[in-house]
Amino acid sequence: MGVKMEAKTDIGQRCRTLFENPAVRAKGWRSNLFWRPENSQNPYGSLRVDGEELEVLLAAIVGVEATCRPALEQRHPGRAGFIERSIAHGELPLLTYQSDS
Known about the structure:
The protein is an all-alpha fold and 101 residues long. It is 50% helix and 0% strand.
């Protein structure tokens, strides 16, 4: 497994952990908003959206530091701040679609 694949797995696991936080669960969002189901027993398959953006979004809801924030800001300057401000205003920003590959 390459470094990039491991990083995606780490982001996916962190997003899943954050998604299961009570602050996020209180939003009433279903996992298929952000993940493609792996099978009928596991709703957390591949991510439908950019993992770094999702981690920033979920971390903002939970109130913890997003580990992907610096990488997202380097890739798309201002994007992490936009996501955090949207959450602070009670809005769900449109996240970048990620094809199933």
